[in-house]
Amino acid sequence: MKTGRLITAGLGLVVAGAAVGAATVYGQKRHTEQPDYTTIRSDGDVELRDYPALVVAEVTSSGDREGASRQSFRRLAAYIFAQDRPQGGEKIAMTAPVLQEETEPGEWRMRFVMPAKYSLATLPPPPADIALTQVPARRMAAIRFSGNASSRDLAMMEARLRDWLAGQGIEPAGEAEYAFYDAPMVPGPFRRNEVLIPVAAR
User: Fold this and answer.
1) CA gyration radius, the chain
2) What's the rounded Cα separation, in Å, for the pair 74 and 133?
3) CA-CA distance, 147 to 59, in Å (whole number)?
4) Which domain, by its residues, includes 81?
5) What is the mean pLDDT of residues 24-28?
């Protein structure tokens, strides 16, 4: 009987902990700025979206995707949190998603989208290895999924998205990008990840 009560209590703690974790993650997402976009079409976990022009801070790192991701994230975080700027200054709020793409074999570009209140003229000057630029407005096909977004997962989702585009008679207009909405400490089931492919607007 005592063992049964202990098991029941343990399960209750697990459920309560999961609920608290989910609520915390949900609260973080609600308060993190994300780019506005217009959904043109939805088909299950796939969407066609129109994005406005976005101001981003970007850096490129070499190596495997995971290693380059860690290195680039640290550099961009140091910029927005005023830890590595020529003139210091105020911190910039973190937004979501973090964007990553392979620009050539073994070269990975990561982008932090800047809060909408900033322009290229009003952002603090970055260190030499970080560039500030404006990504033009564009139409993107997106497929959404949860989990830890391993390279295998990303490749599978990209293949699914390309198959969907082919079935719709839509031609890609560029290479795939990866979008990560949550911090690494967020449990996989609560994470939002996406593969994005630019397409021509009709």
Assistant:
1) 19
2) 19
3) 25
4) 53-135
5) 38
Amino acid (1-letter code) at residue 180: F
The C-alpha atoms of residue 27 and residue 56 are separated, in whole angstroms, by 24
Residue 127 lies in a domain: yes
| pLDDT, tens digit (0-9, with 9 covering 90-100), for 63-105 | 999 999 999 999 999 999 999 887 778 899 999 999 999 999 9
Q: How far apart are CA 130 and CA 139, in angstroms?
A: 26
Q: What share of the chain is helix, strand, coil (3-state, %, to 5)?
A: 35, 30, 35
Query: Distance (Å, rounded) from C-alpha 148 to C-alpha 65?
Result: 14
Closest CA to 161 of 120, 134, 198: 198
Torsion of Cα atoms, 141 then 150 then 101 then 103, to 10°: -130
- For residue 60, the domain's CATH number is 3.20.80.10
In a 3-state reduction of DSSP, which class is residue 167? Answer: helix
